[in-house]
Amino acid sequence: MTSSISNVTVIGAGTMGNGIAHVFAMKDYAVVLCDISEAALEKAVATISKNLDRMVAKEKITEDQKAKTLSNITTNTDLASAVSECDLVVEAATENVELKLNIFRQMDEHAPDDAILATNTSSISITKIAAVTKRPAQVIGMHFMNPVPVMKLVEVIRGYSTSDVTLDMIMEASQDLGKIPTEVNDYPGFVANRILMPMINEAIISLHEGVAGVEEIDTVMKLGMAHPMGPLQLADFIGLDVCLSIMNVLYDGFGNPKYAPCPLLVNMVTAGKLGRKSGEGFYKYEKGSKDVVVSESFK
Ligand code: CAA
């Protein structure tokens, strides 16, 4: 750890939250992982441990480094005490505006006055989140990519009132994690999802219109454009509910019909086909299996 931040609280123990806790703890930050659910916290620590095992097996870290990383993480179900001594909070709760605003009001009340409040939101306005706090200059977007331990990018989003000092500290901390922070401004979808989501939506429209099947669309993009996953598999990986909510942010934010979510995406989310996390999306996922098999609905 070489940045001026040493105590980090991560709010939300889901996929992104556990990944963010993992990367800070590996660099010897003291991490408090906070979630209202004790079960979610236990699952998150087990996931971090499993992902560290993978790194030990590949000889990227030693058993001692794994143990040290885990010892840098404590868990807490009470937000007020979890943020009471932090230098930085990274909020990675569910992508829901009211929930995030509520969490930011609480973080603002209980975190030290000089703490930075960052959000891992994938599309909600940083300016809007900052406006519910008394420290808008210390609010910033710190958008990690999934899987966090693997992906190099941190999209750093400057809200309307974010100060230069806050920006510099977050750029420095991101570099300290071995990431490549990239600064962008606060507009719907920022850069990552303004570009990624319309591509995914267009892939779903192509499927919906019968231009090609699931495997064909993904193969074109994997082999033709060297994407590690095709857009439909990536949509499953991200979560179709998350994709839909981001498309709605773009559609509402720009008022342009080109961002209208594909009706097939809307239907699948309504039907509970959310991708990998629900066991089925464009593909079907068997527990414990790494096979990617096209869902019966698209055969
Ligand atoms: N934790 C730690 N390491 C992990 C990991 C995890 N959760 N998942 C994979 N890895 C590591 C593996 O150990 C492996 O490491 P080595 O290269 O050292 O061997 C490496 O990642 C590759 O993993 P695999 O060989 O198991 O599988 P793969 O080659 O298929 O790669 C992948 C998996 C990295 C996920 C790759 O498919 C990929 O890059 N997919 C696209 C991911 C992407 O686009 N993410 C962004 C999503 S958008 C987002 O997050 C933001 C948003 O707002 C929606």
Q: How would you explain this protein's 3D organization?
A:
- By secondary structure, the chain is α/β, with parallel strands linked by helices.
- The chain folds into 2 domains: 179 residues, Rossmann fold (3-Layer(aba) Sandwich); 101 residues, N-(1-d-carboxylethyl)-l-norvaline Dehydrogenase, domain 2 (Orthogonal Bundle), CATH 1.10.1040.
- 46% of the residues lie in helices and 15% in strands.
- It contains 12 helices and 10 strands.
- An 8-stranded mixed β-sheet has the order 3-2-1-4-5-6-7-8, sandwiched between helices. A two-stranded antiparallel sheet has the order 9-10.
- Strand 1, helix 1 and strand 2 form a beta-alpha-beta unit.
- Helix 1 packs across helix 2, helix 8 crosses helix 10 and helix 11 crosses helix 12.
- It starts with 6 loop residues before the first strand and ends in a 5-residue tail after the last strand.
- The model has no long low-confidence stretch (mean pLDDT 96).
- The chain binds acetoacetyl-coenzyme A.
- Acetoacetyl-coenzyme A binds next to helix 2, helix 8 and helix 10.
- The site of acetoacetyl-coenzyme A has 17 residues, from helix 2, helix 8 and helix 10.
